[in-house]
Amino acid sequence: MNFKEQESTPVFSALEAYAKEDITHFDVPGHKKRNSPELASAFGEKILKMDANSTPALDMLGNPTGVIAQSERLLADAFGADEAFMLVNGSTSGVQYMILTACRPSEKIIVPRNVHKSAINALIMSGAHPVFVAPEADLEYGITNGVKFENYKKAILENPDAKAVFVINPTYFGAASDLRSIVKLAHRHKMAVLVDEAHGGHFPFHPDLPVSAMEAGADMSAVSLHKTCGAFTQCSALLLNERHFRRSEVRAVINLFQTTSASYLLMSSIDIARSKLALRGDSIFGGLLPLLDESKRAINHTPGLSVLTREYIDGAGVYDYDETKIVVRVNELGLTGFEAYNLLKSDYNLQAELSDSYVVLCIASVGDDAATIARLTYAFSDISARFSGKRNPFTVPMDGILTKPKGVVNPRDAFYGNTRQVPIDSAAGEICADSIMIYPPGIPLAIPGEQLTREIIDYYKFYRAQGGIVVNDEENPGLIKILG
Ligand SMILES: Cc1ncc(COP(=O)(O)O)c(C=O)c1O
Question: Is the C or the N end of the chain the one with fewer CB within 10 Å?
């Protein structure tokens, strides 16, 4: 990486200069940077002045040749990619662009079953045929992890016609699969490797973090710069190693969907976050990881609590582990993860990322320091002091996370098929035309084209009863869309 060049922020610098000019605007946005005291008082004059549309000075995201092209080159260099595309609709769009670039209708893609809904939606859009591989499940924590290499290997060998292999690096809970081996095998079989790195944007910036997709030789990766890297919400990057795909074909897919009015505030925040990570990521994460280590040791010595660390690495579903994820198991205290999540907010003013039956997930990032980590450690020790020995441990049947729904119809055909609504309770045996997701993390219980079973329906009801958020496309509660 060229460190000197990484100091520059071409989009942000051009925008700042443009905002200072005394221009009378006869272009959009319609607030004209002046005629909205409401926006100015809500967000500040500077934001209003910097909310600009594409102009020759500011370049154009759909076909960049100026400052955006320069920023994208710096982004690629920082992340060790041949090419990078700035995205303003999250890794949701990045995941979709990767799958739509790699797969035509009916072509096969090997996908972990615990993918984010953006991947399922991409299957619907592309008409690709998923070959699902099962992630490893941890019934003690009630979570799913990565997919062991042997499962990928079996799927690759049994489906030599597959076009691509999809990998999550890491899962929401921090588990990374054996990406290097998966890439090597997939490439030997002429398959592209697409990586959902929504939660792994920080990986290239410290050697004690799991290997990044680009470093492992994957073909494309979608990175949420807003999640762990410090850019504004919605900012992501699509990274490309030009082996299977050319820059122009990826660009063509992006331009099928991407707004023609991308926000310069968002793109500028990508510039600023990228420059900071490139120049100081190593020292930021070098400072953060020992703090997390200390905090996790303390939590692991706190009665009734346990937290995942690199000791969790098992060479299979957890081939490597991202220590910036703080997955705390609270059920021994007699609390559900949902209760702990609410307690953290109501009693300690801490906002966790998500909760599940047994665990609460907190995310550490470039935004943390000794003070924030100490507050979190204190909150967990206080929760333990308040609840330890007062309640029986909370346990529930965890078999639901092992459900392996049977795909009967291609997801796209099911989504666009003739459908009807039925009460979810009577839908066992029917073919689902809906997506039932636990949200967050947005992982599907059933997707269009899969056969609903009693087990899935019971898990859906159990999850809702516990306070988990389960969403489906059907807006009437208790109903579900099925085929036929
Ligand atoms: C595993 C995974 N992939 C993709 C996404 C989508 O990322 P974004 O929120 O940047 O659109 C998420 C969002 O939480 C996710 O958890």
Answer: C
